[in-house]
Amino acid sequence: xxxxxxxxxxxxxxxxxxxxxxxxxxxxxxxxxxxxxxxxxxxxxxxxxxxxxxxxxxxxxxxxxxxxxxxxxxxxxxxxxxxxxxxxxxxxxxxxxxxxxxxxxxxxxxxxxxxxxxxxxxxxxxxxxxxxxxxxxxxxxxxxxxxxxxxxxxxxxxxxxxxxxxxxxxxxxxxxxxxxxxxxxxxxxxxxxxxxxxxxxxxxxxxxxxxxxxxxxxxxxxxxxxxxxxxxxxxxxxxxxxxxxxxxxxxxxxxxxxxxxxxxxxxxxxxxxxxxxxxxxxxxxxxxxxxxxxxxxxxxxxxxxxxxxxxxxxxxxxxxxxxxxxxxxxxxxxxxxxxxxxxxxxxxxxxxxxxxxxxxxxxxxxxxxxxxxxxxxxxxxxxxxxxxxxxxxxxxxxxxxxxxxxxxxxxxxxxxxxxxxxxxxxxxxxxxxxxxxxxxxxxxxxxxxxxxxxxxxxxxxxxxxxxxxxxxxxxxxxxxxxxxxxxxxxxxxxxxxxxxxxxxxxxxxxxxxxxxxxxxxxxxxxxxxxxxxx
Length: 534
Ligand code: ADP
Ligand code: MG
Hints:
It holds the Pfam family HATPase_c. The chain is an alpha/beta fold.
C-alpha cells in the first residue's frame, strides 16, 4: 500500500500548461493523468480513483467550475480535493464561485512550483492516510467477522461439549443406579434374612452392620442402639472367655458355637452362632449369623424334666399303693380301739380324720401319676375342687396361706363332661401360682357358681399381682418370673381348658392380687339344651 502509486489528474486545455504541471509534480510516487478538457477529465474520474485533481478554470466547452460540479455530484468522487489553477479570475467573486463548487484550494498563475508541490504532497498524504484508515476499517471488519465466527464455533463446541458431558453423566448415573439396585437387592436379602446377621471388622468387636432381625433379637428399638457398642456388652459375662477363644481361631474358617446373650430388656437368650471370615472392600471382616435357640434349649430341658417327672410319678404311684394298704389297717384298728377306750374318744376322732386325710392325699397322688388317656367322664366338679383343696391345704399352710371355699358344703350337682385328672392338674397349677404369689401369706378365695349353661370357677388371691405389661405374656410357653419356674403351668392350663370347650381368663392388679376365672360347659344343661332343641 505504501508503495502503491497515487493517481493525480491534471486538467488544462493547453498542452504546454499540462507539461509544465507534469514537470513540477513528477515523482516516483505519483501517477500523473492528463486531460485536455472537462469532458476528458470526467471520463478519467469515472475510470480511476484520484488523490487530487488540479484543474484549469478557463477551458473551452465545459469550464473548470462546471466540471468540478459534475465531479461533486457523483457520490464516489464528491470528496476528491480539487485545486483550481487560474491566470485570469483573481477577483473575489471568481474565487468564491470556485469554493462553492468544491474547490479545496486555488493556485494563481504563474504559480510557485514548490508551493504547488507541497500542497499536492499534503493532499496526497491525506489521501493515503484516509486509504489506510479505510483499509484498517476493512481489516477490523474482517477480524470482527472472524471473531464472531470463532465465537459462534466456540459456542456450538461448548454446547456439544455440554451435551457430551450430560450424556456421560447420564451413563454414569445409570450404571450407578444399576449398582445401587444390585446393592439394594443384596442389602434386602441380608436385611430380611430370618437369621440375625452381624458384620464386624477383624480384630474389632463393634459391629458396622446389623440387620433388622438382629435388632429384634437383641430387643433393641433401632440399629443405633446396637451398632456402636461392643458385642461383648451383649454376651453373657460367663461366656466371654469362650467367645474370645473362638473368635481368635476364626481366621482359619467357619466356626459354630453356642453362648448366651443378654438382650437390651434384660432377657437372657441362648444363641447358636456361625462366624465366617470374608473380605469386604479390602478389609478382613466377620460375617456372624446368630440364631435364637432358647426355645429349643428349653424344650430339650422340658423333655428331660418330663422324663424325670414320669419316673418320679411312677415311683410315687408305687409308694402310694404301698402306703394305702397299711393305712387301711391303721384306720381299722384305730376305730376298733376307739370303740374300746372310752376316755380318749376325742384323740381317736382326730386320729381317724388325719388318717383319712392321708388317704385322700395319697389317692390324689395316685390319680395324678396314672398314665394319661383322654377319656371323658361325667365329673362332679365341686367334688374335684374339694379333693384338690384337701391335697393343697398342707402346702398352703406352710406358706401361711388359707384356702377358703365359697360354695358351702351342700354341694349342688355341677356335672361336667371331662377328664378328672386333667382338670385337677389345672386347679393345682393355679393354686400353686397363687400360693407362690403370696409371700406374706393370706387367703385364697375359691368359688364356683353356675352361669347359664356354664359353671364359673374363680380363684382369687391377694398376692403380688402381675404388672400390666407382662399380663399378655403370662401363659406363653417359658414365660416365668420365678427363679425356678418353668413358665409352662398356665400354658398347660389353657390347653386343658380349651380341650374341655371352656375358657380361662386372668385378671390382675399389681400389688393387689390376681383372679383366675375358668368357665366350663355344664354337662346336664348341655344335654337338656340338646333335648329341648331337637
Ligand atoms: P411358673 O409358675 O413356672 O412361673 P406359670 O405358667 O404357672 O409358670 O406362670 C407364669 C408366670 O405368671 C409366673 O412366673 C408369674 O409371674 C405369673 N403368675 C401366674 N399366676 C400368678 C399369680 N396368681 N399371681 C402373680 N403372678 C402370677
Ligand atoms: Mg406355675
